[in-house]
Amino acid sequence: xxxxxxxxxxxxxxxxxxxxxxxxxxxxxxxxxxxxxxxxxxxxxxxxxxxxxxxxxxxxxxxxxxxxxxxxxxxxxxxxxxxxxxxxxxxxxxxxxxxxxxxxxxxxxxxxxxxxxxxxxxxxxxxxxxxxxxxxxxxxxxxxxxxxxxxxxxxxxxxxxxxxxxxxxxxxxxxxxxxxxxxxxxxxxxxxxxxxxxxxxxxxxxxxxxxxxxxxxxxxxxxxxxxxxxxxxxxxxxxxxxxxxxxxxxxxxxxxxxxxxxxxxxxxxxxxxxxxxxxxxxxxxxxxxxxxxxxxxxxxxxxxxxxxxxxxxxxxxxxxxxxxxxxxxxxxxxxxxxxxxxxxxxxxxxxxxxxxxxxxxxxxxxxxxxxxxxxxxxxxxxxxxxxxxxxxxxxxxxxxxxxxxxxxxxxxxxxxxxxxxxxxxxxxxxxxxxxxxxxxxxxxxxxxxxxxxxxxxx
Length: 458
Known about the structure:
Oligomer: single chain
Number of domains: 3
CATH architecture of the largest domain: 2-Layer Sandwich
Helix content: 10-25%
Strand content: 15-25%
């Protein structure tokens, strides 16, 4: 583990703004995550966990503590539901070997032989669960089998004791079969992705594998580990609907935990990770339950319209086609990272769409003298009698148009909700512009817009 001093942070963010970290380290294994947190605690330093840098604004003075960048990589694909297997699914020798792994180095037993991971790991690593076949297999045709390969990137020290055998999951090939003999196509597939994996690359892999569940989240910058924190969502989907569990290091209890989706406290752009327990957990892996051969989600109006334009016959688009269209729509709004495009130098949507009561909606209508657009607030008892109003519409109705600027800070020329760094902007300028917008919306409509980006070092 290499700890450096005064590391500039602006290059690690999509905003391109921010001062240096007093101390900086990149963790590429769970062991290094534990080591880094212990080092920060021993030196009395504040700790900030940095992922893909796509949803934060760092102070001009930087961060006076340790910035821990999560760099764990690897993806494991397994038939969904195999975590419910009991030891009866293993031979007596395999079950015995599984129990021994709880006290020794991580390994799996296959063919009467013991295979080690080559890495020391905690017994509670999610990559090894006593009583579960530790190396699920896939049934492929002879041609697919000849193309199958072992990818070294899937080996995660301290996490995954086996490499993934990747095959093509097109509709033409057979779905993998779990050790219980149930076709995975009926149960879905579980993708175990390390927190440092690039999110858009992960989405692209899943759609190429013909697995539905996150196709509308294509083009979102950042890393896998950040998706459960904010409950990332767009174009009719959010990760809460696909996440099966989250593995994280509990800084308070100094232990790794696995949290089911229900334990994550997901809500609109919220989770326990950024609300009730901020700073307590460091996400190291996220498990997504996706549907092999499933239909794409086409709830969002702009997306549905684009699909109809490209397919006037009404034929169902593939998941890959939907993901590509989502990226096109995002790019048209300046929400896709494109080299040299200043409209993309942002943190995405800077404000959350407010969820309002019917009474607040009437006040908004009175303030604008127009019927405000609205859409469902989402499931949950807390949203009964509430609707969501587009923050972009409120901003425009308050006098701020696309392309508005305040010094080097500005509003995207393509999307009112994206505040951009026009070149050389400071964090102070960005906050000044954000404050001016929020004040104007509150003055006219009585609604205080809530910022999406995490503020660091302020």
